[in-house]
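Lab notebook: predicted structure, single chain.

Context: the supervisor wants predicted structures on file for every construct in the current expression panel, including those that have not yet been purified. This is the next one on the list. No modifications to the sequence; it matches the entry in the shared construct table.
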Amino acid sequence: MMNRTRSFATGRTTVLNASLMWFAIGLVAMLGVATIFGLIPQMQEVSITLFSSRPFVILLSIFAIGLMLALTFMVRKASVQTLIMMYIAFAVIEGFSLSILLIRFAFADQTWKILLLLLIPSITMFIMGVIGYKQWFDFSKIGRFLLFSLIGLMVAGIIMIFIPGIKLMWKIYSIIGYGIFTLYVGFDFWRISRLDEILNISENPDKSIVLRYGILFGLSLLIDFIQLVWFLARLLLDN
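Prediction complete. Output recorded below exactly as produced.
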């Protein structure tokens, strides 16, 4: 804790600062694209046409997952410029995907729900971010639980796609999913805090390392936010 305080006093760039900066950049890019394709009438037609094609949706999902995995595994090897391009590309793709939600609520004359989609996850991330970064809870104790819970969510989601008429189960699934990713937010901020402590041991930490991990954790936080939005959307949708 002393080292972390000292880093703030000397103005040293921390992984937290870098992570929040890249999270904000990704969020602006994502919401900008979502707004353009989700709320502007002419662009809504483009979004609806493309998302009506199942092959397009599958390819878009695969590309987004590929970017996420590539950035994660190449964080130490790829150039910073390459990492930034992959990160922005991921944010743009997710923003385009999010546009279909905005269209759904706009067509149902429920634009007020769009505010809830942004406000509630933001409050969740702020609260869990403070808990995680201040290390008020040791999230390392639930790391394995979160991993297996994520796998369980993915498997259950795939199975439920092929089972019709289970609206209540989707609601329960969404509540559980929101809870799991709420914990993931705390876990990610806890990891950022631990990394800051490790880097602060060194008097002259490599700024490139801070930037690279800032992009990586910015991606993690953006994914957390996206998942919170999607799980909350399933709860707010009437059908």
